[in-house]
Structures are given as C-alpha cells and as structure tokens.
DNA sequence: TTCACCTATCGTTAATCGACGATAGACTAT
DNA sequence: ATAGTCTATCGTCGATTAACGATAGGTGAA
C-alpha cells in the first residue's frame, strides 16, 4: 500500500552520529535564560539599559511590586551575572553587566 | 566635605522621562526565555536543530530522563511555540519552529 | 480483532518560585 | 549618639516545577 511516501524523509533526516557533548553551555544558557524568564526581570533590565535609573528605590517605583519582591528579582539578576550592584552611600546602584548580556545574546544567537 | 564627587554621575545618569510602556514584548520574551530555561529543553532544541532526530523515542534515548519527563518538556516547548510535533503513524515527529526561534533571537538581540 | 508499540496524560511527591510583610543592617545627617 | 532612610534578608504561604511510575489512547501489524 505504501502509505504516504516510501521514503518518508519529510521530517526526520537522521544522519550524523553525534552524541551531544555534555553541554556545559546548555547549563550556562539555561541559567541566563532563566534570569530573563520573568516579565519583572525583563522590565528591570530594560530600565537599566535605558539608564533611567540604577538606584534600587527608583526601580521599585517603576514596578507594581513590593520592595522586597523587587529586591529578590535583583538578587536573581545579580546571581545570573547580568546585573551588578555597587553600594553608593546609603543606596545601591545597579547596572547591566554588558559582557554577560553579550554572552546571553551570543548563546541564544548560536542556537 | 564633598564626599566622593560633587557630580556623582559614575553610574546613574538619569535622564529621559520614559515610563516603560506596558511591555507586551516583555511577556512574550519571558515566555520564550522560560522555555529554554532548562538544560534538558536546550538539549532537545539542539538535538532537533542537528536534525539528528525528530522522533520522540530517539529524543528520549539521548536524555537521561524518563519518557514521561521528556514528554513534559516537549509539551512545554510546544506551548512556547518553539517546537512543533506532527503525528507520523504511531510515532510523533518533532521539529523546530524556525520563525519562533527567530523571534526569540530577535527579542533577545533587541535587549 | 487482537497484540505490540509509541506517546500523552494522570497522580504523586519533593523542591522551588513569587509574592508579601516584618525586621535587621548600613549609612547619612542632624 | 540618635534618628531617619534605603536595601537585604527572614519567614511564611500558595502556586508551580520537575521528576517519576503507572496507565490510557492511538496506530500499524499479525
């Protein structure tokens, strides 16, 4: 009867005998991706990129979230390396880590 | 005393009176980013990009995870739009949705 | 039809996230 | 020194994730 097509190479085109190396970059990318996997964190990043402000307090004002919640998101962003915070007197000034952002773009771009 | 610097424009350079539009793209990007925010899902995407296989069973074989777990990840990837699955007889053939991937790259690149 | 195979879904469990209020710590200015 | 301000952390709670085994559903072959 030869159903649809004798060769059925419509989608699967196996070849290569690769075995997918341990993928250290998969770990890296997943962590960076996770950092931006929340609208609030993306908003923070955009805010910082716009240079509107780096001071925590101003970030909080721009967000419909409690101060402690924003602080948590900032902590996550710091842990991912995408953002850095430097203490400036009684307040904290946050900035984007350009190289980390570039790394994220590079890894996503390489997909 | 003038502590550190009278101008202190070292980090914060406020300007612009923007207000950050509602950010529909922040939602979109966060969803796409979330889809790749797990090493297993990145591995699946790479597997599909390499065309090594699109058949679910082969994907499972490449992963150190139970079949049901892989199926969950595939569901998440499908829901994000990054992956599509077409039924091919008794099995299912998964492929990358190139345009969704391009969209992800575009949104990340625009950060 | 019936059987075997492949995949999706269900139900469970432990762990993590996201949000909040309250509180502690650090620094300035009074 | 003390009070006031700004930020981080703690503790809590509900919701969600990630993982698994077991099972249901669908398809092709015998």
In round numbers, the mean pLDDT of chain A is 84
In total, the number of strands of chain A is 2
Assembly state: homodimer
Distance between the termini of chain A: 40 Å
Give the ordered list of helices and strands of chain A: HHHHEEH
Task: Name the shape of chain A in a single word.
Answer: elongated
What structural class should be given to the helix and strand makeup of chain A? mainly alpha
How would a crystallographer describe the biggest sheet of chain A? 2 strands, antiparallel
Describe what this molecule looks like in 3D.
The structure is a homodimer of 111-residue chains. Chain A has 111 residues and is mainly alpha-helical. Helix content of chain A is 50%, strand content 11%. Chain A has a two-stranded antiparallel sheet. The longest helix of chain A has 14 residues, at 67-80. Chains A and B meet through helix 1, helix 2 and helix 5 of A and helix 1, helix 2 and helix 5 of B. The structure holds a DNA duplex (30 and 30 nucleotides).
């Amino acid at each position: 009867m030869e159903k649809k097509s004798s060769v059925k190479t419509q989608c699967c085109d196996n070849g290569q005998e690769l075995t997918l190396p341990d993928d250290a970059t998969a770990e890296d990318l997943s962590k960076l991706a996770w950092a931006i996997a929340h609208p609030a964190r993306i908003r923070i990043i955009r805010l910082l990129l716009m240079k509107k402000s780096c001071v925590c307090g101003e970030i909080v004002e721009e967000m419909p979230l409690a101060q402690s919640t924003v602080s948590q998101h900032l902590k996550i962003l710091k842990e991912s390396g995408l953002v850095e915070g430097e203490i400036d007197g009684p307040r904290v000034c946050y900035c984007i880590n350009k190289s980390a952002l570039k790394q994220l773009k590079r890894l996503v771009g390489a997909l």
